[in-house]
Design a protein that fits this description.
Rossmann fold, 2 domains, six-stranded parallel β-sheet, six-stranded mixed β-sheet, 12 strands, disordered N terminus, Substrate-binding domain-containing protein
Length: about 325
């Protein structure tokens, strides 16, 4: 019985270490004089920089940031968030964070060759660095201690296999960021899983009006597509409009969700989405850096921690609707 109790306590302590830390306070918030607490944890105020490739107006990154902010609040961290779709600017943000002497950095690497050396420089300065969302195949090459996201090829393959099972044969895969290796991997995975024809259509994701007109034009010229596959929710919503305008009979499927996309799945305008839980990516990235500072812990033992893929369709969309509309999914 004593051994069973010890095992149970150890298991509970392990869960607490991930969610909030197993500490001398027994997991309770530590008072900061006068009854105040510092983020509900017993650690000093840390500064963490998060650098992403999010473009202005892309609601996906609002979810990543919300997760990061919630973890920062819990962990008594000052979060410094910056984003730019241009890889050189991301690298400059990382260098600025190093110069500022931050305690940790979380970064996306859609272009590892351009961004990775800046991350390695941070590691060389003794700053723990983790990756999220993009760069799963390269983060270890630059000394980063963890990664939180999905394997884009695996996710794309799963999507392609689902399309094949549904009887689809010809897909228009819409790439909204040229040069983003993660998006190319998604479409390649769809092609592999489908075993059919996948055409790539490159659009400017920062101009959704142009996105819609480009998709509409393509569908008007070629009636053979049975699926338009978007790689983000805002593009998927424009694809819905394009299908209607062109008179196409193609269905729309997509990667990633937001509140508008969840509604579109509910009413059938979008067939389904591949979800990688962006809120969780942001949350785990920041929380892992807090754990690294607190007691040298790592999540995943240096290996990727998968946050996806999973499918959201009409059979389960109701279970995530509230979280999506609260900016937590």
């Amino acid at each position: 019985m004593k051994k069973s109790r010890k095992a149970a306590v150890s298991a509970l302590c392990l869960v607490a270490a991930v969610l909030g830390g197993c500490s001398s306070t027994g997991g309770a918030p530590r008072s900061e004089g006068g009854g105040a607490t510092a983020g509900g944890v017993d650690t000093p105020r840390y500064v963490v920089a998060m650098v992403t490739h999010g473009a202005p107006g892309d609601t996906y990154w609002d979810l990543v940031r919300k997760g990061a902010e919630d973890a920062a609040k819990k962990d008594n961290i000052e979060l410094r968030y910056s984003s730019d779709p241009q890889a050189p600017n991301q690298a400059n943000f990382i260098r600025s964070a190093v110069d500022a002497g931050v305690d940790g950095i979380a970064v996306t690497m859609p272009n590892a060759e351009a961004i990775g050396p800046a991350a390695q420089n941070a590691v060389n300065h003794g700053i723990p660095v983790v990756g999220l969302n993009a760069g799963m195949t390269a983060y270890q090459d630059y000394g980063m201690t963890g990664f939180f996201g999905q394997d884009e090829t695996v996710a794309g393959r799963a999507a392609g296999e689902r399309l094949k099972d549904e009887g689809n044969k010809r897909v228009l895969c819409v790439v909204h960021e040229q040069g983003n290796s993660s998006q190319e991997a998604r479409c390649a995975g769809v092609r592999e899983g489908l075993g059919g024809e996948v055409d790539l259509l490159y659009v400017n994701g920062q101009d959704l009006t142009s996105v819609q007109s480009t998709i509409t034009s393509k569908l008007s010229q070629d009636r053979g597509f049975d699926t338009v596959f978007a790689l983000q929710a805002p593009v998927a919503m424009r694809a819905v409009e394009s299908v209607q305008q062109s008179g196409s009979e193609a269905q729309v499927a997509t990667f990633d969700t937001n509140a508008e996309l969840v509604d579109a799945i509910s009413d059938g305008r979008v067939a389904w989405a591949v979800d990688q839980q962006p809120y969780l990516q942001g949350y785990l990235a920041v929380d892992s850096l807090w754990l690294a500072k607190r007691n040298g812990a790592t999540l995943g033992g240096g290996r990727p921690v998968y946050t996806g893929p999973s499918f959201v369709d009409q059979t389960n969309v109701d279970t995530i609707e509230e979280a999506a509309k609260a900016g937590m999914r």
